[in-house]
Amino acid sequence: MSVFAGPLFALAALLAIAGVAKLAQPDAAARALRTAGLPGADLGVRALGAAEVLLAALAVVVGGRATAALVALAYAGFAGFSQLLLARSEATASCGCFGVDSSSPVTRWHVGVNVAATVLALGAVIWPTDGLPEVLSHQPLAGIPFLALTGVAAWLLFAAYTLLPDLFAAVDDLRADDLRADDLRADDVRADAEAAA
After folding, report:
1. For residue 76, what are the β-bridge partners?
2. Which of 2, 79, 137, 192 gives 129 a disulfide partner, CB atoms 3.0 to 4.6 angstroms apart?
3. Do residues 39 and 20 touch, judged by C-beta distance below 8 A?
4. CA distance 150 to 129
5. Where are the chain's structural domains?
6. How confident is the model at residue 184 (pLDDT cuts 50, 70, 90)?
């Protein structure tokens, strides 16, 4: 078993989640595509979602270099799209990756996570893995710990795309509020000093 089996399956799970979301609710991804200057028809988004689900299934069931290369290509495409959307929307548009608009816009963080995912998938090209059934047949405890850790990795990836950008935006808002409060206090001190003089 390759050391990249778990990461590849986690990336595939994320692809499947995003694909199912686009199939069910294509509006947010279609809006993001149009904002980036690309065709954004619901039918096209649903086709992209179906391709993501199919690729995820192939990566998990079959494994191998070819499917890992396709997963890497998909995430490289997502990195390029995130960068394009970031530039064209001036960091104001959600990527719509998971079928809904997130409260924070696409950022360099999204680009970076997609690049990191691409690198992980390329690791599975260099050190390929079998499909999940074969991997599980060599795991202790019927593969339950492996599946649990892969599930946690998939959730952490999902959080990296959805929760962390919102957290970063909240921290930036707090910093901006602190700066405004400092400016107001400085104005009050100046006004008090002028009044006392």
Report:
1. none
2. 2
3. no
4. 14
5. 5-165
6. low
* Sequential DSSP letters for 59-108: HHHTBHHHHHHHHHHHHHHHHHHHHHHHHHHTS-----TTSS--SS---H
**pLDDT tens digits for 110-136?**
889 999 999 999 999 999 998 888 887
Report the 10 Å Cβ neighbour count for 152: 12
Q: Give residue 84's identity as a one-letter amino acid code.
A: L
* DSSP H/E element including 127: none
Q: Which of 68-72, 152-156, 189-193 has the highest mean pLDDT?
A: 68-72
Nearest to 162 by CA among 102, 105, 113: 102
Using CA atoms, how far apart are residues 46 and 50, in angstroms rounded to an integer?
Answer: 6
- CB-hemisphere CA count at 13 Å for 127? 11
Task: Characterize 29-39 residue by residue with b for buried, 16 or more Cβ atoms within 10 angstroms of its Cβ, and e for exposed.
Answer: bbbbbebbeee
Q: How confident is the model at residue 3 (pLDDT cuts 50, 70, 90)?
A: confident
Phi/psi zone of residue 39: left (φ > 0), alpha (ψ -120 to 50 degrees), beta? beta
Residues in the chain: 197
Give the residue from 111, 38, 120, 121 showing the smallest Cα distance to 79.
Answer: 111
Q: Determine the Cα–Cα distance for residues 126 and 3; give it in Å rounded to an integer.
A: 11
